[in-house]
Amino acid sequence: MQRSSFVIAVVVLVALLGAGIWWIRELPPHGNGKTRLTNTPPDVAILQLNNRGVGYMERFQYKEALDAFLQVYRQAPSWLPGHVNLGIALLNTADPNQVTRAVQIFEKILEQDPDNLHAHFCLGIILKHQQNQEEAADHFRAVTRRDPHDPHAWFFLANTLPPLSAEQQECFEKALREDPNLVGALYGLQMCYRVRDPKKADDLLARFKSMKEGNSGNVADIKYTQMGRYAEVIGHVAASGHVSGKLPLFDPPGPPATLAANTTWATPSDFGSGPDADLVRAVRRRFGGALVVLDFDGDGRPDLLLLSAVTRDGKLGDVLLRN
């Protein structure tokens, strides 16, 4: 009996030691604390490995992404985006142990870079999910101070605040100012107005339902690609510029656009004569008109520029359709 107990104890000890060795091997090295993090790009091989991790994240293959970012982390220990990406990959595994490791990484980043927006935002997401609303709010506030134009930071901050409070209402309004199509903020704002201004709440609710039915809104949730830019992995060194929202859904039975005086929609004959005009007509017949999507007035909603789409006083001209 004693021999059996001894054998069982040895087996358990070996199993525990094996698990411990695996855990230590898998843990990223913390270093001696003297390595300074930098945005300086590493060599091409590291960037290619990072891009592989980014590709896995976009396919929601978090384990494969984690393996790639672990290699980036170890081979380029001073590259800040490598730390950020590893933390985000760990966060998205939804494994409590991995999430704890993500917290450690983001906290280490903030020790050297106290204003790092990715670290603050992701810590806010984790703490909010853990029901630690006050600390989560502090991290989201840090993001809004440095980037007051990020709608997701305002939205998640609002959801850490006392329900229906004036501060929560203000945050939902700021989120919608930056992204008018953020349906979660729209719903939250109508709830805030429900006790103060029922008519306005009804209008907001009608707008919310219209977006939901038309699937034209932007969703904010604790899921990868739905948490905002600061919870997405860094795929390149330079930060991307502003991206406009989704295209509006045009209702064909509605009234046509009203053109200015002496302006009409261009017809094939308006392109003139000669080889150049014939080529333009052929291209238009095959591919349609030339259309550019842009945010002309910077309101976060896409506007449309149609090239050579109208004639004005006998001359071809462009037309801007503002949303």
Can you give a write-up of this model?
The protein is of the alpha+beta class. The protein has 2 domains: 36-231, Tetratricopeptide repeat domain (Serine Threonine Protein Phosphatase 5, Tetratricopeptide repeat), CATH 1.25.40.10; 263-321, no CATH class. Helices cover 54% and strands 8% of the residues. It contains 12 helices and 4 strands; from the N terminus they run H-H-H-H-H-H-H-H-H-H-H-E-H-E-E-E. It has helices at 2-26, 44-58, 62-75, 80-92, 96-112, 117-129, 133-146, 151-158, 166-178, 183-194, 198-214, 275-287, and strands spanning 263-265, 290-294, 303-312, 315-321. Strands 1, 2, 3 and 4 form a 4-stranded antiparallel β-sheet that branches. A hairpin with a 2-residue loop joins strand 3 (303-312) and strand 4 (315-321). Helix 2 runs antiparallel to helix 3 (62-75) and helix 4 (80-92) runs antiparallel to helix 5 (96-112). It is flat, with a radius of gyration of 27 Å. The N and C termini lie far apart (82 Å). The relative contact order is 0.07.
